[in-house]
């Protein structure tokens, strides 16, 4: 299509809106689950660790298969991959509306939904390229990217409101309804034929799944207190190391590779991808432990939890929007450095407040600071990473960038959540066994009950459970519960803090390099 033809074709606003709706559902899905943890646990009689594992697993599957999903879209057609991805997401949403146990959540929401995301994101990017041109294409990228940003900002509020006043099942039913509306307009989508090589790097695909999967699943198994943790982690490390060796070898032999290892020859790209992963580790860790803490310790419902963590997402959205419009002459590396600095400062400020906080208002200032830092990162990291990449390779580079971010998110969700719940278990046991009030023959039983049940209870709920026990026993168990939880949250917050500090060091390395010179399609970064 020539530029004159493109100018003559009217802008397909309905298609742009449907693509934005698909992206909104994709992003808001996890936010709804985060703020609804206690309600889901209560309604299906599960555990916090089980739901947290499902959330981490969904992000992991998306990360592990997104590069494969891009190739699958090339082979079966981008439009077909887009439809399959939407149907997978719809299956997960419908399962959430009907489930009565954890298993359907794991199978349909986490595994099937994660696979859907791995197909949907690359296909959507290709379809935008193929269905719009010139200014219209940039407009759609901005619309879809803006939809993702708005979903991230208001997701906790939407999820909290619907869960509190209706039900979390209603929220997921609405997701399925939106997907049905998006699919109703599928005839508007023109498929984009793939003209490149159809050879598949099957070994590279397997190694990428084993590498990312082994590490995150190893953490989740450790969290549950059993299984071959060391073996799973070893599989992950060997898988990632083997992937690097395999890709370099295949490249030298002139054979098809899952991703081009030559991308990592650029220091700018390596540093950018590393920053993206660290940012997502920090975001995932913070967004999983704070809702759990607010609902367990303060007894907040989903809406109160959503309102309490909203300053983080809203400030991230506002700063990203503001900075994105004011490019100016300031170096991207400096903004990234300040982003990680503010993120780290905000998390450090949370640590001493946690034991004293008796409401979500205590978190307001630190979350605004941390969210502002994340906003700086969101506005800069994708463009920093992809700007020096040529047009021919930007789609592949964006896929690697997305995979790194999704892996970081799943790692942060799994590791921070696991640290919090494992710390609770150890602290409960230690404090119960060391108590001078609890009878010696009851200490082990009390420790076991606290480990199994108290992780989902506020003090109010725990007091109701203890009705009939002697007053001094009730007071002692509540004291242990009260003192253990803030310490567990403080330990869990060290994960996003460590990611922030490592990001800060990575930012200093960025400053020592010249700024990237735009050489590729920066629009792809909006979906990164």
TrEMBL record:
Subcellular location: Cell membrane
Superkingdom field: Bacteria
Transmembrane segments: 48-69, 81-99, 105-128, 140-162, 168-190, 202-223, 229-248, 268-293, 305-324, 336-354, 360-379, 400-428, 487-508
Transport is among the record's keywords: yes
Keywords, sorted A to Z: Membrane, Transmembrane, Transmembrane helix, Transport
CDD domains according to UniProt: MFS_MMR_MDR_like
Segments forming domain Major facilitator superfamily (MFS) profile: 15-447
Membrane topology (UniProt): Multi-pass membrane protein
Stated name of the protein: MFS transporter
